[in-house]
Amino acid sequence: MKKSRSYYQNSKELRRELGHALPTEELRLLHRKDPLRHFAVVARQFLLLALCGLGLWRLTQPLLWLPLAVLMGFTMFNFTVLLHEEVHDAIFAGQRPRASRLLSLLYAFPSGISASQFTRWHLDHHDNLGSSTEDPKRFHLSPKRVARWYKLLYCTVALFFIYFRAARREMQGYEPQLQRRIALERNATIALHLGFAALLWWAGGFGVAARVYFVPYFVVFPVAFTLNRLGQHYFIDPTDPAKWSTRVDGNAPWQFLFLYSNFHLEHHYFPSVPFYNLPRLNRLLRPFYEERGIRNHGYLEIAYRWFVLNKFPHTDWTAPSPAGTPVAAV
Question: How many CB atoms lie within 10 A of CB 178?
Answer without folding.
Answer: 15
